[in-house]
Write a structure and sequence with these properties.
The complex is a heterodimer of chains A (about 600) and B (about 575). With about 600 residues, chain A is of the alpha/beta class. Chain A has 3 domains: about 80 residues, Ubiquitin-like (UB roll) (Roll), CATH 3.10.20; about 120 residues, Alpha-Beta Plaits, CATH 3.30.70; about 375 residues, Rossmann fold, CATH 3.40.50.1780. Chain A contains 19 helices and 17 strands. The two termini of chain A are about 45 Å apart. In chain B, the strands form 5 sheets. Chain B has a 5-stranded mixed β-sheet. Chain B has a 4-stranded mixed β-sheet with strand order 2-1-3-4, covered by helices on one side. Chain B is of the alpha/beta class and about 575 residues long. In chain B, a hairpin with a 3-residue loop joins strand 3 and strand 4. The chains are: A alpha/beta (about 600), B alpha/beta (about 575). At the A-B interface, helix 2 of A face helix 14, helix 15 and helix 16 of B.
């Protein structure tokens, strides 16, 4: 079937294409890029927008190239007057209902609708406005904001939420002119099963879904002389933020980023990778303990906040399987406002922790009420009142927001020579870098667990079968005769498969890594737009390149982490760790 | 015991009902002749003939006398007793014959009795299919008959069946599409309510043809009686071994269930219907893959309309060749129309394909009720187009109607006279489609809404000549770019009226005038002083107090207050209100 060829004509020229291709794919082979709007390969093929029309000889109507398969002898015309007129008119109709506030729109630079209108030569919308009343915004979520007025009902967000994430927080309601994408009973994202992963935002062609912006708050903190503002940067950010400045996907800009952030005025430029190494110490020991004490297995990683909320909604029965470790972002905040504050004698109330994340769910995570361990730590020591409570992480910026800060400050990012992160919370190993890619946490954990358990040095550090974009990856890892069966899932629909195995008592694994977003954090919803598999692979390649170039590649070798244990925490899973670095999960109500 | 029944009905609506008088006279006569125990007289509500004075129908002879006078009593009774003699000058000879295949049993058998259906030859076709024909010969027979889908699009039924038959799948489904939703159409409803077993038999045969073991009736919930009758009929069929496992002793198994549609028009579109049965939002999906390849739950599925299925048993019983003799070259058999609108005799009409629209509207339905000339006929409901009077001699078949810019549709037919405005009519239909658009694809969702905006603008006298161009542009894009049939055809009423009645649009746009007097914004009511008798009835009836004056001074209408409701015009006995 696969290698069967079909002969067809595109705009008068004969082509041989693989059977089973769509017209859109066949045309791409013929170097014709048919414009699309709702189409998203393998995810959204609902044929809603009617932009990708082509003329096919013998067909009554114009056909949607995104869903029509090619046939032997087909004659396709992609650029006739009829095709152009119909495409333009449909686009014009869509524009008639779309707000024209492009100049101040969040998606100004990345809006597919705006680009399409320009490319297709729409210079005037001849139809009256289709909407008389403005639909209310859904601003309930701390991570995301939805503007139904900008929605063109392409259905990408709905498809991603259901097909890729199996969350189904949003769907269509109403019909005809009153169709809209909404949450259950219109109650808003915050009151739904939404896990804040933001994959909907990432695929939205317009500005209908955007992150909740914290730029102003960060500027405000930076200009407050009383505040000691530190920043932590997640691993995946350095492999992507260059794209925001016009650099090709896969550009690694670690040093430029550190320098750029310092120029913005942060007192210290730290690295979430430091706390990623710390996470490995805690999580690795937790795994070893669970195995030794016959605790609940498989143990599942807890770094990805979208996945945590997913579990709390859909799999409350397996919350005990999830590692109690906080995510690196939160461990950083807790350590910065306790250990660092103590060590450098800074009033923790004056420390502002800003994190730069490839993620929208991190905004939600930082706002969870239990995420104020530093305050709890200081409460008695400093006799603090409840109303003085502060969060471990104050502000979370996405990669995109961070780039806007840099742009606004007039920093010529591309031409920065580059600087290092600050010590001590900016020191990290290669094991921490790979947290940004699916399979990375697992690989990092295995590197440490092996050496801790065997006391010997691991010869081969690269676990190739844990890498790559496959939805579920499994491996048998031999640690001195102990066979550790592990699995890695990226995207929640894949996670669901592994979780159902656990629920049904037939999971063969001891350790599972789950990342909410396809590809892991490098494909998170805070990352530059567009993010697609091609780009994900390039960012992934950059991340493993960074790992390779690091002098230290195992978390337990991180000297700053070693110092932290020596000077402050004592030992992994110790008393202080328990209070500062570990957390708990709670069952959340579902949709009804 | 009664051996004859005389049905009596006064069909002249314009005078007082004369039935009672005649009825008494007839009864008296029968009693005197001691025939009252042999001949029963029944006054009925509808006798099937209209506007023909006093009408008498004799059963079981099926002789109908029209324009009967009181003095004809003896003549009629004598004729009845003579066995065979008819009174030539009274007997009713219909001008155009209806041809009843689909409606063959409607009104004749008890729809709730399977025995009645069997007695009229029912389920013999199924027996023949299971016993003699087998799948291939069955499909050959259907192919020979030339029957095409009666849901509107006219796809050859045998091809649909054959595609599904050829699919290699352990599970296949058949669905009866009974989601009739066109405004003013009730063909399917009548068949479901009047002859449910014929549809069930058709569905069983279809299931056998493709090798399905599960079938569904998708009926709109607004048809409670149809649902009840189908439910009952399915149960009876199970009891008689016509459904379930080992049907009629064969190895063929079939279970049938009912699914109720929630009233969305788009769920009549087959891919949307499938989604609806699957419990999803009823929105269409791109075809191909067609349901016969990938349908319900991803399995090969055949979806046939009620009327198509009701035809199947007859085709099998009498042969495809017999069926193919009826109709035209491309369109075989009969078609049921629900004729409504400004017609004298509205109702269901079943004609052989090829009968002209004029025959249906004038000969069978008796022309307009008002006596005004017919202006146009709309076929195909909101998906169809308007056909002007001068084209009424077109023989009805799929191709002809399409050539005229309309479609066969499922069988709605609305007759319009001079009082119908050709901007208002498409506005109504488009409004329906905009309301019923699922909202999935942009051309239908936004295009329909925009077009409706232009029509409203024109009907309110705010139109400009460029609007017609905009209407045409959107209409064409909708036809070519909409995802499903609803959007592709929603612009037909607009395009066809633009084609045949552009002058009327221009009257609205250029002269701000609605010739039919329908578009309220363009009408002015004034009082003609010469004719006004100052009775004050208009003054008393105006709901917004736009009429001022007194019996002494006379009355006048304040145009800024008038809401053009037409109350004053209707109540004035002296025709002193001018409507312009």
């Amino acid at each position: 079937m696969e290698d069967k060829k079909v002969s067809l004509k595109i705009d008068g020229k004969v082509y041989e294409c693989d059977a089973g291709m769509t017209i859109l794919e066949a045309c791409a082979k013929a170097a014709i890029d048919i414009p699309t709007l709702c189409y998203l390969k393998d995810i959204n093929q609902e044929a809603a927008c009617s932009i990708c029309l082509v003329e096919v000889k013998g067909a009554k109507t114009l056909l949607r190239s995104c869903v029509t398969s090619i046939k032997e002898g087909m004659e396709i015309f992609t650029n006739t007057e009829r095709v152009r007129n119909a495409r333009r008119l449909n686009l014009e109709l869509l524009l008639a209902g779309h707000p024209k506030d492009c100049l101040v729109c969040d998606r100004n630079q990345s809006c597919e609708l705006r680009k399409l209108a320009f490319d297709m030569g729409i210079r005037e919308v001849r139809f009256p406005k289709t909407t008389k009343t403005e639909l209310p915004l859904d601003a309930t979520s701390v991570s995301l904001s939805r503007d139904p007025n900008k929605c063109i009902l392409c259905g990408r967000c709905v498809s991603v939420c259901s097909a890729i994430q199996s969350v189904k927080a949003i769907d269509f309601s109403g019909r005809g002119k009153s169709s809209k994408v909404t949450t259950f009973f219109d109650s808003g994202l915050a009151n739904s099963v939404c896990v804040n992963c933001g994959q909907c935002l990432l695929v939205c062609p317009t500005g209908a879904i955007i992150e909740k912006n914290a730029i102003e708050e960060v500027w405000h903190a930076l200009s407050d002389p009383k505040k000691f503002v530190v920043v932590e940067v997640a691993p995946a950010v350095r492999a992507a933020i260059g794209e925001e400045f016009g650099m090709p996907a896969g550009s690694l800009v670690t040093a430029k980023l550190a320098q750029g952030l310092r120029k913005l005025g942060f007192a210290k430029v730290f690295d979430t990778q430091f706390s990623a190494d710390l996470t490995i110490m805690e999580e690795g020991y937790e795994l070893i303990q669970r195995i030794k004490n016959k605790g609940i297995l498989p143990m599942i990683t807890s770094c990805s906040p979208g996945w945590i909320k997913f579990a709390e909604h859909f799999f409350p029965g397996i919350l005990g399987n999830i590692s109690s470790c906080k995510s690196p972002q939160q461990m950083f905040g807790a350590v910065a406002k306790t250990y660092y504050a103590e060590k450098y004698n800074i009033d923790p109330r004056n420390i502002i922790v800003v994190s730069i994340m490839p993620c929208t769910a991190k905004k939600f995570e930082a706002s969870r009420p239990e995420m104020q361990s530093a305050f709890d730590y200081w409460k008695n020591k400093m006799a603090l009142k409840e109303d003085e409570a502060f969060r471990d992480v104050d502000y979370v910026l996405t990669t995109r927001e961070a780039s806007r800060l840099i742009k606004e400050a007039g920093i010529n990012f591309i031409n920065l020579p580059g600087e290092d992160f600050d010590e001590p919370l900016g020191i990290s190993t290669g094991a921490a870098v790979i947290f940004g890619a699916t399979g990375g946490v697992m690989e990092a954990a295995v590197r440490t667990a092996y050496e801790v358990l065997t006391g010997r040095q691991l010869e081969k550090l690269d676990f190739m079968n844990l890498r790559g974009l496959n939805g579920i990856k499994v491996a048998d890892i031999d640690i001195d005769g102990l066979n550790l069966k592990v699995a890695v899932a990226n995207s929640l629909s894949n996670a669901r498969v592994l979780l159902e195995e656990i629920e049904e008592g037939r999971s063969p694994y001891a350790f599972i890594e789950i990342m909410t977003c396809p590809g892991g954090c490098l494909g998170g919803a805070g990352q530059p737009i567009p993010t697609n598999n091609e780009i994900r692979l390039k960012r992934m390649e950059a991340i493993y390149r960074e790992d390779k170039n690091k002098p230290l590649r195992k978390s337990h070798e991180n000297p700053a982490v070693q110092a932290l244990y020596k000077e402050f925490l004592g030992q992994p899973l110790g008393e202080k760790s328990h209070h500062l670095l570990h957390t708990y999960y709670k069952k959340r109500e579902g949709v009804l | 015991m009664y051996t004859k029944v005389i049905l009596v009905k006064d069909t002249d609506l314009k005078r007082e009902d004369k039935t009672r008088e005649f009825y008494t006279r007839l009864l008296d006569y029968l009693r005197e002749a001691s025939l009252h125990e042999q001949i029963q007289v029944v006054r009925v509500a509808d006798i099937g003939v209209y506007d023909q004075g006093l009408v008498v129908k004799v059963l079981p002879d099926k002789v109908t006398y029209i324009n009967v006078q009181d003095t004809d009593v003896k003549k009629i009774v004598d004729a009845i007793l003579s066995e065979g003699k008819v009174i030539e000058d009274l007997v009713f000879k219909p001008k155009a014959k209806q041809h009843r295949i689909v409606l063959r049993n409607c009104g004749k058998i008890d729809p709730e009795s399977i025995d009645d259906y069997i007695a009229s030859g029912g389920y013999l076709a199924l027996k023949k299919v299971l016993g003699e024909l087998g799948q291939l010969k069955l499909i050959d027979e259907i192919k020979l008959s030339g029957i095409r889908g009666r849901g509107g699009a006219g796809y050859p039924t045998w091809m649909k069946w054959n595609f599904a038959r050829e699919m290699n799948s352990a599970e296949k489904f058949v669905i009866c599409n009974a989601d009739e939703g066109d405004p003013g159409a009730y063909m399917d409803r009548s068949v479901l309510e009047g002859d449910p077993h014929s549809v069930i038999e058709g569905l069983i045969i279809a299931a056998f043809a493709i090798g399905a073991s599960k079938g569904y009736f998708y009926i709109r919930a607004e048809y409670p009686l149809a649902v009840e009758r189908i439910e009952k009929a399915i149960k009876q069929a199970y009891d008689y071994g016509l459904l379930g496992s080992g049907i009629l002793g064969s190895s063929f198994n079939l279970d049938i269930d009912i699914r109720l549609g929630a009233g969305a028009f788009v769920c009549g579109e087959e891919t949307a219907l499938i989604s609806s049965i699957e419990g999803k939002r009823g929105t269409p999906h791109p075809r191909p893959p067609y349901p016969s390849v990938k349908g319900l739950w991803g399995k090969p599925t055949v979806i046939n309309n009620v009327e198509t299925l009701a035809n199947i048993p007859v085709i099998i019983a009498k042969g495809g060749k017999w069926f193919a003799q009826i109709g035209t070259q491309t369109s075989k058999g009969t078609k049921v129309f629900a004729v409504t609108g400004k017609v004298k005799n509205s109702g269901l009409v079943e004609i052989a394909m090829g009968a002209t629209l004029r025959e249906i509207v004038m000969d069978i339905c008796g022309g307009t009720l008002s006596g005004k000339p017919i202006k146009a006929v709309q076929t195909g409901g909101p998906s169809g187009g308007v056909i002007p009077e001068e084209l009424l001699d077109t023989p009805v078949d799929y191709e002809n109607l399409q050539k005229l810019g309309s479609i066969m549709g499922s069988g709605g037919m609305i007759v319009m006279d001079d009082d119908d405005c050709m901007v208002d009519i498409p506005k109504f239909y488009l409004g329906f489609c905009v309301e019923e658009s699922c909202g999935k694809c942009a051309p239908c969702r936004i295009g329909g809404f925009q077009m409706l905006g232009y029509l409203k603008k024109i009907s309110e006298g705010r139109g400009i000549p460029e609007d017609l161009g905009q209407l045409r542009r959107i209409a064409q894009a909708m036809q070519k770019a909409s995802l499903c049939g609803l959007g592709q055809t929603a612009s037909n009423p607009v395009l066809s009226t633009l084609k045949y009645f552009e002058d009327e649009y221009n009257e609205h746009i250029l002269n701000k005038r609605c010739p039919a007097g329908k578009c309220s914004s363009l009408i002015t009511y004034t009082i003609i002083e010469d004719k006004c008798k100052r009775c004050g009835i208009c003054f008393n009836n105006c709901p917004v107090k736009a009429i001022s004056g007194s019996k002494e001074e006379g009355y006048s209408i304040a145009q800024d207050k008038c809401i053009k409701c037409g109350q004053c015009f209707d109540v004035c006995k002296f025709k002193a209100i001018n409507k312009k």
